[in-house]
Amino acid sequence: MNLDPGTIAIIQLAWSRRLGLADDALSGAPEGRRIYSLQERTGRVSFVKLFGREVFCGPEWAADRARGKSADELSRHSALASLAVEYGGRTVGSEHLCFADSFPGPVEPDEDVAVAEDHDLAVALERLCPPDDVAEASLAGKETLFIVVDDSLAEPVPLAGAGFSVRDGILADLSTLTAPTARMRGLGRYVTSIAVEEAMAAGLIPQFRAPLDNIGAARTAAGAGFVAVGVRSEVQLAG
């Protein structure tokens, strides 16, 4: 599955702005080119590879150390952190950058469930999930929410949720969270597809950031029609 050239151009524009670059920085760079954005007054070091173009952001001392590193090395947060070990570099993480520009195929769960848009249910769902999963998804902080619930009981029980927030006026930054007891039932893919459809109906390009070591997130994204076209890693520096 490939993204439309027009979609690619919009994504490159959004990420150029996100990284503080000229609007045509990514679209105008040849494939394999690495852009160094020197930011002396920053508390983080980051690396982005998107559609074959690379961007390294951080202080000059970090950029000097990164020049001898390959994209594969810089895509791993542990390698990125090693550049800043004496500066108190703390790993934030590495993630696949995935996008979609077509409506997902019909996805229906095997069980009878309802979908709500209640923020309180998103908070309740987070309480059912491991802290690391909650931190990765940050579901309750999303602007638009969809929560799959079992409403056969007196109190609805949240099973899975997806939501998105608008970034740069163009992208719908989307995440998914599924309760451990409800996994492997297709509910994450189902609710993600709902969020994708709603984002596209609003004229946005859905974006899904799947942690490199989270196979479940990658499967959910692929099942909802996302295409992995880049990677991002980040390290925070000691204040």
TrEMBL record:
InterPro entries associated with the record: Acyl_CoA_acyltransferase
**Superkingdom of the organism of origin:** Bacteria
For this protein, the record's Gene3D superfamilies field holds: 3.40.630.30
SUPFAM superfamilies, per database record: Acyl-CoA N-acyltransferases (Nat)
**Protein name listed in UniProt:** GNAT family N-acetyltransferase
What lineage is this protein's organism placed in?
Bacteria, Bacillati, Actinomycetota, Actinomycetes, Micrococcales
